[in-house]
Amino acid sequence: MQRDRILVIDDEQSIRDILVDFLSLEGFEVEAVGDAPTALALLAERSFDLVLTDMKLPHMDGLELLKRVREAYPEMIMLLMTGYGTIETAIEAMKRGAYDYVLKPFKVPELVFTIRRGLERQRLQQQNEQLNELVALYHVNERINTSTSTAAILDIFLGSALEHLQAEQAALYLRGVDGRFALQGSRQREEEAQPWPELCLEVLLDDFNHRRCILVSPPPTERLDRYLRVPEGEGLSSFVAVPMLTKNQVVGFIAGLNRAAERRFTERQRKALYILASKVAHALENARLNENLERSFNETMQSFAVAMEQKDKYTQGHSERVATYATLICGRLGLSEEDTARIHRAALLHDIGKLGIDTKKINKTGKLSREETEMFKLHPEYGRKILEPISSLAELSLVIYYHHEHFDGTGYPEGLAGEAIPLGSRILAVADSFDAMTSDRSYRKALSHDDAVLELRKNRGKQFDATIVEAFFSLLTEVGTERLVEHLAKHGTTMPTSELAPWIEGTPPNRRS
Q: Is the four-CA dihedral 411, 413, 416, 418 of positive or negative sign?
């Protein structure tokens, strides 16, 4: 069992000898010095659990020593020895953070009792802090585990590093295909804080490859300039960095630094950061795999859309525009990101059933016959049959199947009405109809945007859900129908969600065409 370590500071050799002998017999590991500067140097080299010091010392008094020790080692238990003439000073020292004081001449059993009480208090504080850190790490872990994007995981880590590890600044680096570390993001507690410093990445990588975690706190223990290139005069009090490992390979690292003397990282915080790093590494790997799957999925959607448009020369870009309009409507309605993504995908594939219809019929000029019209009405059913067997697309099949239903029950294929029609299908109905009306078709010329909007509003509660029409109308009114359509024409088909956000807010993107 590890013994508690005590540093005794007294300028009288006889007092030091007595304390070393008696406290050693009580099971403590004791070292003794005769002045404050020597004590500070020893504290920087070795770890102690308690400092027992006289108030009157050469070169530096007890109050100044207390101040410096508390700044460098906030968790240190400070116990003062004082004579009757300095009791007021001892009381003042307690106000400044000393644990307790004993009067000279003291009785050894009373001193030992006070020491044990102080160490027990320290242990209870540490256990309480450890429990709080474990609870905090648990909650952070829960949030990370439910995040599927690299950006979200990075945001959670940086926030938790500042809050739970009491870091003034935190950063995360990932290793690229070239083997080099690249900064992915950093955050600081104060807006006016210095920017994240340049790190000696080669030195860090060498340490991490040897599975060494880094804790420089306080700086005399290990020079900060081994790891950081800090400008002259810019003070740092401590630095911590731990590797992120995936399949036993260093894939990155997370780091924190503090400048204020009262904020020094502890070994316990380093261990907590290491635990967090393992969670972040695992989550980032899952996010990378998920993003790759998402990318492949979206590429599949685009391929399906291209295949559909090869059948119909009049609907170039139609599916992508419908997907964009549908996404904008979802934003106005306040739908979740998950629901919006599902409806966006359904919109891309809403006409996939046309793959089952004769290409000549699709591109026929002039009005369709009654028989041909009935044939076209089968495309939602064909779309459903195409998608249902594909597990990743099956949930889209019903949204597509019902997107030609009318709110008043006069639509097809099943004549559903009102909210019996899936919400995604009702949104697609508005988006699809608007783009169809404002696009040239084989049998008619496009309507003006204003006429298309009037047609939507005229059919509120009949063909379309009035709430969805009004959500779309409010968007078009605020940003301008012509500007929105022009923007889509100039910047391609489906815009990334990040570009859609300003339109959802009601303000068009501020960028040059």
A: negative
Buried b vs exposed e over 430-463: b needs ≥16 C-beta within 10 Å?
A: bbbbbbbbbbeeeeeeebebeebbeebeebbeeb
Kindly state the tokens that stand for 427.
Answer: 């949104």
| pLDDT at res. 226 | 83
CB of 261 closer than 8 Å to CB of 70: no
pLDDT at position 97: 81
How far is it, in rounded angstroms, from Cα 188 to Cα 377? 59
Q: Are 196 and 176 in contact (CB under 8 A)?
A: no
pLDDT of residue 512: 31
User: What is the number of alpha carbons within 13 Å of residue 489 lying toward its C-beta?
Assistant: 9
Residues 321-377 have pLDDT tens digits of 899 899 999 989 999 988 998 999 999 889 888 888 776 766 666 677 788 888 888
What are the backbone angles phi and psi of residue 220, rounded to the nearest 5°?
A: -60, -25
Q: Is 166 exposed, middle or buried (0-12, 13-18, 19+ CB in 10 A)?
A: middle
Residue 426 to residues 307, 352, 509: CA-CA distances in angstroms?
25, 18, 27
Q: Residue 366 in contact with residue 315, Cβ under 8 Å?
A: no
pLDDT reading at 490 higher than 50: yes
Give the pLDDT confidence of 134-144 residue by residue, as tens digits.
666 666 667 77
Structural domains in the chain plus CATH codes? 5-127 (3.40.50.2300), 147-286 (3.30.450.40), 312-505 (1.10.3210.10)
